[in-house]
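Tokens for chain A. Residues wanted.
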């Protein structure tokens, strides 16, 4: 078994299929222990820093609750709570935090930032999200898929929408490593980077994964086990891109018609938050400007029995707990 203790968790490309499967197995074990009320304070007395340049409900709560369950204290540093990149360099921040904490989580902008933090830190560093990669989310996603279908091998997961950034990238990498059938359905200009696709095709040749890139959403979803989508404009992008994205991606909205084309076995997934109704400030603003009452998914699909988004959200905590416990205490 791989020795995880002391390692970073920065992107899925850094880890083998066997290592990722071991983390999923450990997450399932920790989830069962939590459900049964069995204490698992394997990191008793340790302290972790949660460095957030982009805010998040699920990521913060998952790390804080997971840390508490493991017997640790977590200190949250929001965008105004750290001088990193303003009065203090990334390298200096890493070295300061390493003297005070046993692990560092980073959620923010470029992948180069979390990579530099890890290079300069003397403790494990975990990627809670960058522009290019979202590895803890995909662990939760695959845990949820495995719970729903009993396996990952051969599962057809169709990602509809803008596949150029962290979710499209990370789902494709994870699928290529673990043997899923991954489909990106989007306009060709929204497909992942060709260099990353080529790298993933090499991984797929070893794992038996299938990778497809299909512009027609109706063709893409047939026989799918999972339709997956994300918001059309990511955090930190300018508001001006809304009009472009709505025009380009509206045909890729997950509707009941697409779910029906996929088949009764199909489940809906979303990393959240989701604009499926008018109960958010942004949702109401978009409705007033563009006259649409949902964006990437209809409320009918989001609230349907086929939707497993809240199982997925809960599993963020269990998989993040597995990552922290494995890298701080070793796999048990």
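Reply:
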């Amino acid at each position: 078994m791989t020795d995880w203790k002391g390692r970073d968790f920065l992107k899925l490309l850094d880890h083998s299929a066997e290592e990722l499967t071991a983390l999923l197995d450990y997450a399932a074990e920790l989830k069962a222990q939590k459900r049964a009320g069995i204490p698992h304070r394997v990191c008793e007395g340790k302290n972790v820093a949660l460095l957030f340049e982009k805010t998040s409900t699920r990521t913060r709560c998952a790390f804080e609750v997971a840390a508490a369950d493991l017997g640790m204290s977590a200190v949250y540093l929001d965008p105004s709570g750290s001088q990193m990149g303003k009065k203090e360099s990334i390298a200096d921040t890493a070295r300061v935090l390493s003297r005070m904490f046993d692990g560092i989580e980073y959620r923010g902008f470029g992948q180069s930032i979390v990579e530099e933090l890890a290079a300069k830190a003397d403790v494990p560093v975990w990627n809670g999200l960058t522009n290019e990669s979202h590895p803890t989310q995909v662990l939760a996603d695959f845990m949820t898929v495995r719970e729903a279908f009993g396996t990952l091998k051969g599962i057809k997961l169709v990602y509809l929408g803008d596949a150029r950034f962290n979710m499209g990238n990370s789902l494709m990498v994870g699928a290529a490593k673990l043997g899923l059938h991954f489909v990106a359905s989007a306009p060709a200009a929204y497909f992942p980077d060709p260099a990353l696709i080529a790298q993933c095709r090499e991984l797929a040749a070893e794992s038996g994964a299938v990778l497809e890139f299909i512009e027609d959403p109706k063709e893409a979803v047939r026989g799918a086990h999972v339709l997956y989508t994300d918001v059309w404009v990511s955090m930190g992008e300018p508001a001006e891109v809304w009009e472009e994205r709505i025009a380009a991606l509206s045909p890729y909205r997950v509707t009941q018609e697409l779910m029906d084309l996929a088949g009764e076995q199909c489940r809906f997934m979303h990393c959240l938050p989701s604009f499926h109704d008018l109960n958010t400030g942004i949702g109401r603003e978009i409705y007033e400007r563009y006259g649409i009452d949902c964006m990437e998914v209809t409320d009918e699909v989001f609230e349907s029995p086929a939707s497993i988004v809240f199982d997925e959200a809960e599993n963020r905590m269990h998989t993040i707990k597995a990552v922290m416990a494995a890298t701080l205490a070793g796999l048990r």
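The mean pLDDT is 96. The chain has 13 helices and nine strands.
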